[in-house]
Design goal:
The structure holds three protein chains of three kinds.
Chain A: E1 4-13, E2 16-26, E3 31-36, H1 42-47, E4 56-63, E5 66-67, H2 73-82, E6 84-87, H3 91-94, H4 101-111, H5 119-128, H6 134-137, H7 147-159, E7 165-169, H8 177-194, E8 197-202, H9 205-208, E9 214-219, E10 222-228, H10 229-234, H11 239-247, E11 264-276, E12 284-296, E13 300-304, H12 311-318, E14 326-331, E15 334-335, H13 344-347, E16 350-353, H14 367-378, H15 384-398, H16 414-426, E17 432-436, H17 444-461, E18 464-469, H18 472-475, E19 481-486, E20 489-495, H19 496-501, H20 506-515
Helix pairs in contact in A: 4-7, 7-8, 8-20, 11-17, 14-15, 14-16, 15-16
Chain B: H1 11-34, H2 67-103, H3 105-119, H4 123-134, H5 138-166, H6 168-175, H7 180-216, H8 228-237, H9 244-272
Chain C: H1 2-29, H2 43-53, H3 59-71, H4 86-121, H5 126-140, H6 143-157, H7 170-199, H8 202-209, H9 214-251, H10 257-267, H11 270-298
Helix pairs in contact in C: 1-11, 4-5, 4-7, 4-9, 4-10, 4-11, 5-7, 6-7, 6-9, 7-9, 8-9, 9-10, 9-11, 10-11
């Protein structure tokens, strides 16, 4: 008996078709993952039949026999309340800020037509999703909870009224790596306990691989391939599916080949960064506590850890883009002056690429000027013609068409913008590239191609790479060694494959599990 | 220049106000030079003449002065004061807001506390108070009015600077070797300019209203100079007999205010997008 | 919540104190003022001034005396209305101004919220555009234009309402409307923007996904965030109303505090002018204080 059946569903926004005829069916207790790049229409195809998106559905979508397409809003509303549960992508904004957790959670009961729940029932619901001290949480406002906690509240509200179908739209994309595993595991467990049908939307094939019974791959609104999880992942038929799989690296894949290492470049000893506590509280806290790392020519070092572990702070301190309160950093044996005193001749050695590609480019500047900026200050002897020639060379090197030169950043896609950022970082011929989560904000396929580019550049230019990431599988592609950070300290360090195969510290183990 | 600000795009809502504003400004600048009648000649034989009369296109006021000439000169004065005062508020506001936003920390907190405290004051009254105390000079009018409006500009600019400071492109400029002065001039200010101009356009109507209000109360521009506020007051005094003396200057005033407000809002919405 | 109240008081009280001291200093320093000896004063007034302000005492003592007197509601003698003290004048004019301002505020709130929320409910349709254009027009119309216009149409033209003066409550109708219109326009725009933005928020989608009716979504989840911009505006609105009241009282010849203020300003009646400025500043600070409390209730994140 099918819980949810979709036949030839199309969704149009402003009369333009976003989704073109997809078909699938979901049985009770089954999990179907809709996978595709952003813009592939996966969210729209799930939300439109239920009236939760600006898209207009056509075709057929049956929930337990009731046809949703063309159904009146009042009936849809009733179904939403009683038969379906929704989990959305952004937990930070999904809860109403001026209502307490308990108040919002109680709505799940009342909207399903049940009586108002007692405090005990609400507390039990929160406990089921793994939230500590549930009774206290009931009276809190959402802004006091972390992203992970808010998502658990959303999950509790979504399943409280025992719906037949649970739709989870990218439930973990906005969360940190270790949390992702936990939340997905939680959803799976609840599904098993309640016999729910689960429609899981994600752009990350690797993440859903362990939880989905069946997978449906979407590209630009069209079905590419569908089948059981084992079949799709093990024997993909379509090129696009193969590309998707290749772009989501897993730790179980064979280790990639890395370029050879040259002589030592960077040495950082006992680096510490402390900040004053915000607000009224006294004292300081150590964002980075006596960390030491070293890098040689062509070597990649991954700095990994959860959010708040201090990896970005450490990297910026070393690159002289953030404060450093203790420690010594030297380049080729000579001490590197601190952020105030550093000179252009020293700046050119270490260049950054940041996480948000578009925000790292000045929106008022043209691309060519953005890429040329480091040359103005770090190679003052050059004239305009020389700079223009260098910029053109870089464009070629990062795979950007020459006619992007006069564009403004707003005209670029995420991948193109990141290539511009990489070109800018390389234009002054640095020897060390600092990649601060440089692919985390990009779409899976795009991120894969950017990683390919970076690996290529690493090899050709013999670049040392300091790679900050929360994803070990991605870090492997570029990094010979891994340093794991927790609470400001480096808790484990060693060759990549060794650390992954045999993690010693609990923080490392958590990361390895999360990326597996 | 931002392509979306050019004439063709989005002309729908921006074109009519621009045209009207343009016409008024042009008329105010050139008009008095073309007219044969001076604006301050009193003619007891032509008191309260209705509009469309042979010698006086828009009629005359209660002591025979030609209304068309007076309206044009009045518009000139009003616009001049508005522009000067708006520029004062721009300079103070941008300076204050940029410094507060860029410095951050205690400096920012202190500067913004002052802004918050001043926001609560009935500034209008303080300006009037100052005028009472120090006399009515045209300079005081400029400064006083400008000083009323800089608070919002400061807040807006500070907010924008804080957002921009977090953006990685500022850090990237530092990594590229740019010194702080270059970062502020070439990266920060261009990105603040858009918002500042939008709010400038919204400030000008406020300033026009304040100036007119002061003139209406007899505390602003002094005779023989006239401004739209004075004209409206004179017209209001007489409105039971000669309503045209009120409606015509009043109409021009409203047209200026409305066009500027529409333009400023449209620009502000564009900046936010 | 308590933290918010304490924080606001911490800002409000020093501001008030600063205003008091500043006004006193201004008055003492004013050229051509009664303390310069430039203007000839009759011995009676002179003696009264010396007594009130303690002119023969050191400056800090004078300030203390001044603040003390104000705390007791004594603002000293009026320089123009020789038979009255400033306190008398304030007692006469303040109730009228407050009534005018209060009624105008209520009217503006009602009209503004009504128009704004309706427009947001019909986002994108012609009703929305029309209402918002009207609201913009209202904010661009100065009160000293609408006031006379209203008189022109309704009093002189149609003869329904009195031209000026405060014979009875009917005399307040046109002034209140004229005063309320610009503020109503601003509130309409703010509430429409607020509601439109609130309805586009993620948490509203969550509420809809839970099966909540449109009314439920609006009232429970969207209304409070929608009112936040209006609450932020409450302070400036009060300032605007007080300022506008001055014009309205002049135009309609109402014996409110604003009109005394204008007369005082024109005639350099310092004690009166200072008293009004101080009073109005205090009122606005009070109003801002309550507006902040309201803001804290609307958005728990601001409670800190």
């Amino acid at each position: 008996m099918t819980v949810y059946e979709v036949q030839n569903l199309t969704v149009a926004i402003d009369a333009k078709a976003i989704v073109h005829g997809i078909t699938f069916a979901l049985a009770p207790g089954e999990c179907l993952a809709l996978v595709g790049a952003s813009g592939s229409g996966k969210s729209q195809s799930c939300l439109a039949p239920f009236g939760l998106s600006p898209g207009v559905p056509a075709g057929s979508a049956r929930l337990g026999g009731t046809e949703l397409v063309g159904l009146a809003e009042s009936d849809l509303r009733r179904l939403r309340g009683s038969d379906v549960g929704f989990i959305f992508q952004q937990p930070m904004t999904a809860l109403t800020p001026h209502l307490t957790i308990g108040r919002q959670l109680a709505e799940a009961w009342t909207q399903a037509g049940a009586a108002r729940p007692s405090r005990a029932e609400l507390a039990t619901a929160l406990d089921r999703v793994g939230l500590p001290r549930p009774a206290e949480l009931l009276d809190q406002y959402p802004h006091r909870l972390s992203g992970g906690q808010r998502q658990r509240v959303m999950i509790a509200a979504a399943i409280a009224h025992a719906p037949k179908l649970l739709i989870a739209d990218e439930p973990t994309t906005a969360l940190d790596a270790p949390l992702r595993k936990d939340i997905l595991a939680l959803i799976s467990r609840l599904r098993a306990e309640q016999g729910l049908a689960l429609l899981l939307v994600s752009h990350d094939l690797a993440a859903v691989a362990d939880h989905a019974d069946r997978i449906l791959v979407l590209n630009e609104g069209r079905m590419v391939e569908t089948g059981s999880a084992a079949q799709i992942l093990g024997q993909p038929r379509e090129t696009y599916t193969c590309e998707l799989i290749a772009a989501s690296p897993r730790l179980s894949d064979p280790p990639p080949a890395l370029p050879p290492i040259g002589e030592p470049l960077l040495e950082a000893h006992d680096v510490s960064v402390t900040f004053a506590r915000p607000g009224w509280r006294r004292g300081a806290f150590s964002a980075v506590d006596e960390a030491s790392i070293g890098l040689a020519e062509g070597e990649g070092l991954a700095l990994v850890g959860g959010s708040g572990s201090g990896k970005s702070t450490l990297a910026r301190a070393i690159a002289r883009l953030g404060p450093m309160h203790a420690g010594i950093v030297s380049w080729r044996g000579l001490p590197l002056p601190n952020r105030r005193a550093i000179r252009p001749t020293e700046r050119r050695h270490i260049q950054p690429v940041f996480q948000d590609p578009v925000a790292s480019l000045d929106p008022q500047w043209r691309v060519a000027d953005i890429v040329a900026e480091p040359l103005r200050y770090l190679q003052p002897g050059s004239n305009a013609a020389q700079r223009a020639a260098k910029v053109a060379t870089l464009f070629e090197e990062v795979g950007l068409a020459a006619d992007f030169a006069l564009c403004r950043p707003r005209a670029l896609s995420g991948g193109q913008a990141q290539r511009v950022a990489i070109a800018r970082a390389l234009v002054a011929d640095p020897k060390l590239l600092l990649l601060d989560e440089a692919t985390s904000a990009l779409d899976v396929l795009v991120a894969g191609r950017v990683l390919d580019l970076l690996a290529d550049l690493q090899r050709r230019r013999r670049l040392a790479i300091l790679f900050i990431s929360h994803d070990l599988a991605v870090a492997r592609r570029l990094c010979h060694r891994i340093a794991v950070m927790e609470a400001g300290r480096i808790v484990e360090e060693g060759p990549t494959e060794t650390v992954i195969a045999d993690p010693r510290h609990p923080a490392t183990r958590r990361l390895v599990e999360a990326s597996a | 220049m931002d392509p979306s600000l050019r004439w063709g795009d989005g002309g729908g809502i921006m074109r009519p106000p621009l045209v009207i504003l343009g016409l008024i400004v042009a008329a105010a600048l050139i008009g008095p030079l073309l007219l044969p009648w001076p604006y301050d000649v009193i003619d007891w034989n032509a008191v309260r003449v209705p509009p469309l009369s042979p010698d006086h296109l828009l009629g005359t006021d209660s002591i025979g002065r030609d209304l068309l000439a007076r309206t044009l000169v009045g518009t000139r004065v009003t616009l001049a004061v508005a522009l000067a005062a708006a520029l004062v508020s721009l300079l103070i506001g941008v300076g204050w807001g940029a410094i507060a936003g860029w410095a951050g920390g205690k400096v920012d907190e202190a500067m913004m506390r002052i802004v918050d405290a001043l926001y609560a004051l009935p500034f209008m009254f303080v300006v009037i108070l100052l005028m009472v105390v120090f006399g009515r000079s045209i300079l005081l009018v400029f400064l006083g009015i400008g000083a009323v409006e800089w608070l919002t500009m400061a807040r807006v600019v500070r907010g924008q600077v804080i957002v921009l400071k977090q953006r990685p492109f500022i850090l990237a400029a530092e990594a590229a070797g740019a010194p702080p002065r270059a970062i502020i001039l070439r990266h920060l200010l261009p990105n603040v300019a858009g918002v500042a101009i939008a709010y400038l356009l919204l400030t000008v109507p406020q300033v026009v209203m304040i100036e007119s209000f002061l003139s209406f109360l007899g505390l602003g521009v002094q005779e023989p100079l006239t401004s739209l506020g004075i004209l409206v007051k004179d017209g209001a005094d007489d409105m039971d007999i000669a309503p045209h003396a009120l409606l015509l200057p009043g109409g021009v005033l409203v047209a200026i205010l409305l066009s500027l407000t529409l333009l400023g809002e449209r620009l502000r919405d564009r900046m936010a997008a | 919540m308590r933290a918010l109240i304490l924080r606001r008081l911490a800002t409000a009280l020093p501001t008030l104190a600063a205003i008091l001291i500043l006004s006193f200093l201004l008055m003492r320093l004013a050229p051509g003022g009664p303390f310069d000896g430039e203007r000839p004063l009759d011995p009676e007034t002179r003696a009264a001034l010396v007594e009130t302000y303690g002119l023969d005492e050191p400056l800090p003592a004078q300030i203390a005396r001044y603040v003390g007197r104000i705390a007791h509601g004594d603002f000293g003698p009026s320089l123009v209305y020789r038979d009255f003290t400033v306190t008398d004048l304030v007692a006469q004019g303040l109730p009228i101004s407050l009534t005018l301002g209060g009624l105008a505020f209520l009217l503006a709130l009602g009209l503004g919220l009504g128009a704004g929320l309706t427009a947001a409910a019909f986002t994108g349709h012609r009703a929305d555009h029309a209402l918002m254009l009207l609201a913009t027009l209202l904010t661009a119309l100065p009160t000293f234009v609408t006031g006379p216009l209203l008189v022109l149409v309704f009093a002189l033209g149609l003869g329904w309402l009195p031209v000026s003066g405060l014979e009875g409550p009917r005399g307040l109708i046109l002034p209140v409307i004229a005063l309320a219109l610009p503020v109503a326009g601003a509130i309409a725009k703010l509430s429409r923007a607020g509601l439109a933005e609130a309805l586009a928020q993620d948490h509203v989608r969550t509420a809809r996904a839970r099966g909540l009716s449109p009314a439920g979504v609006l009232l429970i989840h969207a209304l409070r965030p929608a009112l936040v911009p209006v609450a932020s505006y409450a302070g400036p609105a009060a300032a605007g109303l007080l300022t506008g009241a001055v014009v309205i009282e002049t135009v309609f010849a109402l014996p409110g505090l604003g009109r005394y203020f204008v007369q005082g300003a024109l005639n350099r009646d310092y004690p009166l002018v200072l008293a009004v400025v101080t009073l109005y500043a205090a009122l606005i600070i009070l109003f801002n204080f309550f507006a902040d409390l309201l803001y804290g209730w609307l958005d728990p994140r601001a409670r800190g």
